[in-house]
Q: What sequence folds into this?
């Protein structure tokens, strides 16, 4: 037996004391509430990718995401990499080998109270900063007054490739979460 009635706006089940509550009705209501609240949030999680096994290279496909829908893209790298091993990890956008973003480990300083990871883009003689702060890559943030200038804007991103040099892999269980601020 389903509920006795439905709410006007979201169509949620309204139950009478004699109704038998059904799990699928209850779960459907939760999904409607989740969707309604999510539509009000300015920040959306666009994609989450988990490393399934130890690997030196991990690719995140972005080709189905319209980056023009977002004013900022935030990428949270939680890859479980052992930074004390002094082995580098790099990031490439669209797997372009000539433009690699290097991820480094920095101890706490006067600007940030805790350690954090940051990534830089190296092209030719110029260093273009893509951003830093608590392992977020934020294309619109420019730390230390550096000039950011690259033709590869988020609207042109089709993939992100994380890779390690040396023999230490990106361990299984790490995640890359991509968020966007809706325009």
A:
């Amino acid at each position: 037996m389903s509920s006795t009635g439905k709410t006007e706006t979201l169509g949620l089940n309204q139950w009478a004391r004699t109704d038998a509550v059904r799990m699928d009705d209850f779960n459907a209501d939760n999904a409607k509430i989740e969707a309604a609240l999510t539509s009000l949030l300015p920040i959306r999680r666009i994609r989450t990718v988990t490393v399934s096994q130890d690997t030196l290279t991990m690719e995140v496909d972005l080709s189905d995401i319209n980056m023009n829908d977002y004013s900022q893209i935030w990428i949270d790298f939680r890859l479980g990499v052992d930074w004390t091993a002094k082995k580098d990890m790099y990031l490439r956008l669209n797997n372009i080998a000539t433009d690699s973003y290097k991820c480094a480990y920095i101890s706490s300083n006067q600007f940030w109270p805790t350690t954090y990871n940051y990534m830089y883009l190296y092209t030719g003689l110029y260093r273009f900063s893509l951003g830093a702060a608590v392992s977020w890559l934020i294309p619109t943030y420019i730390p230390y007054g550096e000039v950011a200038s690259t033709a590869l804007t988020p609207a042109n991103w089709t993939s992100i490739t994380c890779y390690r040099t040396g023999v230490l892999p990106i361990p299984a269980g790490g995640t890359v979460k991509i968020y966007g601020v809706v325009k």
In short: Residues 5-38 form one domain. The helical segments are 23-38. The chain has two domains: 5-38, 43-182.
